[in-house]
Predict the 3D structure of the following.
Amino acid sequence: MKATLTVLGSGTSMGVPTIGCTCAVCQSEDPMDKRTRPSIMISYGGRTVVIDTTPDFRQQAIREDLRRVDAVIYTHAHADHILGLDDLRPLTFWSGDIPLYADPATLTRLTEIFGYIFSGEYKFGGSSTLKLVNLDGQLDLFGASFIPVPVKHGEAEIFAFRFGSAAYVTDFSEIPESSMSMLDDLDILFLDALRHKPHPTHSSLSNSLAVVQRLKPKRAYFTHISHDLPHVATNATLPENVQLSHDGLKLEFEI
């Protein structure tokens, strides 16, 4: 089945431009250097699945003229991946109930932060029909499978996801050996590549290039990009099949 992957956001947790920063990338007029927080959506068979709802989700949804969301999958509970959840509520008017899939720790954090939506104690009339669902293994949605791939984000274990011939690996510092085989034979691979300098909880550009060299996807795109990496200049240094992603990028693949 044909699918389209749209990059809703390609930036790091502080976004690019970063508040108060006067570096060349933050001051750049190149639209490719404008990066909202990291998220993607996958559209196929008249359905739309979103991975993570960032604090910029409203802006991203309006930019992409997003009219419906059929499901959301969460990688983990950090602020830059969940705080746009509230902006799903108007989409329930057109989409109906929207299931939100996450591991137990993330479900707990969502319930704590968005108690006015999910908690019986605080829930009020007119609340949206967003449904929290425990993510327990492979997820089959609308004729496609989304396979959780455990990765290390510093000391934490979070999920990347494989869906058909594509995979989305955001916020990783290490991919365990047991997860590498789950990422073989890909058409499209998205990888966290924060900056040149090593970081304790994120992959560097050189580390992500090494992952690409090992897994050998047909196409690789880097995401969760900081203001240390100018779009055009960095892409000029990368192999032909590897690029920095950018907000609004659209790719077709088989799901």
